Amino acid sequence: MRAAVRHSYGPPEVLEIRAIDRPNCGPDQVLVRVHATTVNRTDCAVLMAKPFIMRPMTGWIHPKRATTGTDFAGEVVAVGAEVDEFEIGDRVWGFHDEGLSSHAEYLVAGRRENVAKMPAGVSFDDAAASLEAAHYAANFVKRLQVHQGDRVLVNGASGAIGSAVVQLLKNKGVIVTAVCGTPNIPRVETLNPDEIIDYEREDFRETSTRFHAVLDAVGKSSFGRCRHLLLPRGVYISSELGWGCQNPLLALMTPCLRGKVVRFPLPTNIAASMQQISALLTEGKFAPLIDRQYPLEEIRDAFGYVLTGEKCGNVMLTFDAN
Ligand SMILES: NC(=O)c1ccc[n+]([C@@H]2O[C@H](COP(=O)([O-])OP(=O)(O)OC[C@H]3O[C@@H](n4cnc5c(N)ncnc54)[C@H](OP(=O)(O)O)[C@@H]3O)[C@@H](O)[C@H]2O)c1
């Protein structure tokens, strides 16, 4: 089978497309033919071992897994002897943020990879694009603890996480102000936010609106610069550690002050996020933004584009055999 392979950490150029043996599934695993997968920001972290904190999971000196890829949607083509919940032909999806080698035509998956049946009536592309960012978005939204009628500002609403956050908040009846750049406004409008601020024309920090929460889904702001936008017990969450790892530190300190707080959610329980998103996809209440599609052979270009920080939603890999 064709797979993206690397033996050291580094930029996209360390990746090569090679013909390697198809993996064999263990007794508690299934063999999946991959129909869709993304190149996402977690893949970039796994590829380059940045931030350094990735290394206990991905390998201290060399990557534990030669093939990159953290999410997939595909079809079961073989089933291990102890597996009774899947059959050959089932459409399945899965995600694991430390990697599951999905940048390949086939992969093996089990409980660790959170393999589950795909939501009915959903395409392979839409399923794969509703995993990585949607999982982080679900965790962030849960930790905002906002309710129907509350106001939330989402910075970076055109990103994969930001666009998922906007949709999850709108499903809760939250009033959403989305911040994005001029070219991405038409795509962000499809998410139905209540207001859009174009950051190329207006500094969102100058709005007179006050919010129950500010969620910076691209980590371009700071608590200090957004504090005045929050109502008295408002919550600030950033998807990034922040300068000097300030966000996790402030998440420890600010709750003691009984005022505006920073939270720094460590995303957990992937299976629960997948169940939540699966229900929304089936009901037509969630639709991932998809930006570019690259053939597997152009995976370096796909990583290069994701690393620009300019993608609008998700970047997909395609497999011409599918
Ligand atoms: N905490 C975690 O567990 C975790 C997990 C995964 C990822 N992350 C981090 O979360 C962030 C978002 O990931 P993602 O995949 O959603 O990102 P992404 O899709 O790459 O986000 C890029 C988007 O952000 C927009 N953007 C860039 N600068 C902006 C600014 N100053 N103001 C507003 N929008 C801006 C870009 O639009 P323009 O080009 O128009 O500016 C682009 O559409 C990344 O920084 C990633 O490292 C955190």
From TrEMBL:
InterPro entries linked to this entry: ADH-like_N (IPR013154), ER (IPR020843), GroES-like_sf (IPR011032), NAD(P)-bd_dom_sf (IPR036291), YIM1/Zinc_Alcohol_DH_Fams (IPR050700)
Enoyl reductase (ER) domain boundaries: 10-317
Origin superkingdom: Bacteria
Gene3D superfamilies, alphabetized: Medium-chain alcohol dehydrogenases, catalytic domain (3.90.180.10), NAD(P)-binding Rossmann-like Domain (3.40.50.720)
Keyword set, alphabetical order: Oxidoreductase
CDD domains listed in its UniProt record: MDR1
Enzyme Commission designation: 1.1.1.1
GO function term, MF aspect, one: alcohol dehydrogenase (NAD+) activity
Pfam families on file: ADH_N, ADH_zinc_N_2
PANTHER family: ALCOHOL DEHYDROGENASE RELATED, ZINC-BINDING OXIDOREDUCTASE
Protein name as it appears in the record: Alcohol dehydrogenase
The encoding gene: adhT_3
